[in-house]
Amino acid sequence: MFNIFLDDAAALVVVLPLLISAIIAFIPSKIWPWIISLVTLVLHLVLSLHLLKEISISGLIIYEFGNWEPPWGISFKIDGVNIGLQLLFSIFVLISTFYSRKIFLSEIDSRDSGKAYSLWLLAIGSLNGIILTNDIFNLFVFLEISALASISLIALGAGQNRKALLAAFNYLIIGAIGATFYVIGVGFAYAMTGTLNMNDLVIQLAQYSDGQLAIFAGMSFMLVGLMVKAAIFPVHIWLPPAYSYAPSAVSTLLAALATKTILYFFVRLLYEVFIIYPSYLSLFLDFVLYPLSLLAIFIGTLIAIYQDDIKKLLAFSSIAQIGYITLAFSLKDHSGITSGFIHIFNHAFIKGGLFMAVGYFAILLKDRVTLASLKGFGYKYPITSFALLICGLSLIGLPLTNGFISKLYLFQALYTNQMYFSIALVAVSSALAVAYFWKIVEQMWFSEIKFKSEKEDAYIYLPIWIITVSIIVFGIYSSPIIEFSNLSADYLISGYQN
Amino acid sequence: MSNSFLIILGIITPLFAALFSYVCRYNNNLRDSFGIIGGLVTFLVSLKIFHGIQNNVIFQITFFTLFDGVDFTFKVNALGSIFSLVASSLWILASIYTIGYMRGAGEKNQTRFVIFYSIAIHAALAIAWSGNLLVLFIFYEILTFSTFPLVGHKQNAESQSAGRLYLSILVGTSLIFFLPAIFWIWLETGTLDFQDGGILINQFPAEYLSLLIAMLVFGIGKAAIMPIHRWLPAAMVAPTPVSALLHAVAVVKAGVFSFLVVIVYIVGPEFLLQTKSSDWLVWLACFTIMASSIIAITKDDLKARLAYSTISQLSYIILGAALASSLALKGASFHIITHALGKITLFFCAGAIYVTAHIKKVSELKGMGFKLPLIFFAYTLGALSIIGVPPFIGSWSKFYLIMGSIEREFIVVAIILGISSLLNIYYLLQPIVIGFTQTSRREAKLIKAPLTVWPPVITGLSCLIFFFYANYFLNNVSGVIAI
Lengths: 498, 483
What we know:
The complex is a heterodimer of chains A (498) and B (483). Chain A is mainly alpha-helical and 498 residues long. Helix content of chain A is 77%, strand content 2%. In chain A, strands 1-2 form a two-stranded antiparallel sheet. The longest helix of chain A has 32 residues, at 334-365. Chain A starts with a helix and ends with a helix. Chain B has a domain at 280-483. In chain B, 74% of the residues lie in helices and 3% in strands. Chain B has 19 helices and two strands. Chain B has helices at 3-23, 28-54, 78-104, 110-129, 133-151, 157-189, 209-219, 231-234, 240-267, 269-275, 279-298, 302-323, 326-357, 368-371, 373-387, 394-407, 411-437, 450-465, 470-481; strands spanning 60-67, 70-75. In chain B, a hairpin with a 2-residue loop joins strand 1 (60-67) and strand 2 (70-75). Chain B is globular, with a radius of gyration of 21 Å. Chain B starts with a helix and ends with a helix. The chains are: A mainly alpha (498), B mainly alpha (483). The A-B interface holds A 396-400, 405, 407-408, 411-412, 415, 423-424, 427-428, 430-431, 434-435, 438, 442, 445-448, 476-478 and B 64, 66-67, 72, 134, 137-138, 141, 149, 152, 155, 160, 163-164, 167-168, 171-172, 175-177, 179-180, 183-184, 187.
């Protein structure tokens, strides 16, 4: 029986959370929705591990829904590119779900617990769909489900601060515009080729290898739509308010995974499909993505320095970090894609850990976490504060943390591409990151107010420390992340060379 | 005892000292004694390693691989053995002095102070014994972060802004210049290990070497070359034991030591002499020497004056490294010892004067010479050593530096070194002159703090004694730098 279950693992990682989500919405209990979600996600992790095993044997899984062969039916594709991300996703959602309970209890009405976890699983299932789908229209569906689920989750923050409603509405409107752009692009592609399957799309597009204006228009629409969704500068404006007014657990999930999954699809589309128009691709990468990434890095960091609200500060730092990832992806070679994936992994841990720690402070304060409110927290809540310190040092990219590995590989990639100006800019912006991070440390440990240490909640600091320890472990023993990223780059770049 | 165990013992002892100080935080005497015990242990370890290095014993321990070609490893080289010996031996005296000073001046948060003090020593020793450039960088950053709480110790607005300046300059420069320079070296050579003769020759494009040198010298902000020197005078808001051990010995010497190690074991003096890529640095170092000496003259605050004197003296070492001839390198490495001994004496005296008489300014020292004879005696010894008067130890390093500049045919540099000595005489001896010649109308109340008096006397006398045993240190120095 269990084998049948495993045979459909590729579909179940998406379908299972979606199914359970529909059920737990109706459970009027404080704790059961959490327990059921947790069990679901443990199963989810088992399924992902099974997929990893399968991939290590066969190298490729194409799952056809309802046995409809592609290009007619919808299919999921799992290969070297996304298996690492799938695993990261599985692990991280489990940790953040474990973390979420106490946070939800104190930030939202306890009667809403069922609804919150329903939305939570809905977001998880649909984000996972983005990772696995091999169909450009199916992607649109998942994008929309995940956006609606996230928007509702963000709006749950209204119990704490009414601005959450505005942030959710902003996200709704801007996200809808992005999605519309994307679906218009899909429409163009479908009109020209008659297919939505990504593998088939490559074959069909080859007949227009001399280029067609309609194809280019469609591609541009799709890319801009995805850029909005991935919060690439300058279409990132929905992100900072959304992350900072959402309930803390939600910010953790979104900051660590939501934009990452879309970035992954973005790079897959670029290097797997659009690669058949090399001139278009390099035009986009060199003259759009590359300069925008540099601007994102610089401006994101600068704005972060002047933030007083810690969650906003972290959100703007995310804009800069997304800039690092897209900068790496714009390099068009193996080292660039590798370093982009490495940073996707590492930044998920770093930002996840930071948002978790700050989220805990938010429920302790029962208020916005500002610089001034953190005075003396280093003494008051030493366990969580110390985790925050380590995550922050990793964000700066100091050695022995995984942030350093990211930086090392990014420098290497830039160096092999002889982009010395970018190297200088990345170096300067990582030094500026010290400025915004140290403001927090100064408040926490070196302000004049002193407190006796207070008891901290193990349910909350345990997941935070799991993340923190993995930050150090992956900073010292970095080969798992590097190998997964190399694998992703191998698969993508082989398409590039063909 | 096995060699790798010695390294671990030396590096871990200060951490244990910090830990025990925290555990015994309610018993002041017990708490403060761990600094002295830790100092003794690390000193013995350093001494053993120092002798081992003289006999070509290899001290090495590798923990794990960080990434391709770079391990987390400690390996003691000759320069490191000198630096660790200096830092650990002076830690003993500084710990004794700290007790006298912190209690005499009634500072708060003494436990935190002692803990971070020990951690800073830990980082300095790890820097001294690091086996490659990345390990050095890691502990370089730890040293910065661990001294930040010491600089901002008073927690008032002034010390907070000084702490910010300190941190932003040191961390900023290291992240913008030093780390990219390390990456660059790694990308070109595939390794970061310290090797005799350097690793860059035939591996690194010679035309870019000047740029690399610039990135290194400005990236290692602790070396305090102008224009990256502002953090050092700012750091003087810290209690004097910090200024004495950290900002005359451990931190700043870690800076020049890092630069010297890079020149000797990464770039390679031979490569440098071939390409002449560091000749521009000779002039920048000369400029720093002269400019900071002149600024020192204008400073009335004794600690600020000493800080600028330190900046000037650090540039002697950078000058020696930039000249890269064997005599100059010998002088530069030896200057690490001589300046450490001399400057810690002066800072000890400045702190002792503050604790006993509450005087910070040079102009207020009138008549104090007769009231505080021992302190002024020690101060005189230290000052003469730094000026470079025989028979004080400082004369040796200055001698070698001047010989080195003549060897490289930089006659102007030799003249500048001479002029700088004259300026030294003026600004270092002026306090003594004021102390003994002018009389004060003010009756100052004196507080007895013997623990702050004897350490400078000991270091001052050793400036005199070690003049005759200079070969003991020079053997280690010349063993490596023979080109």
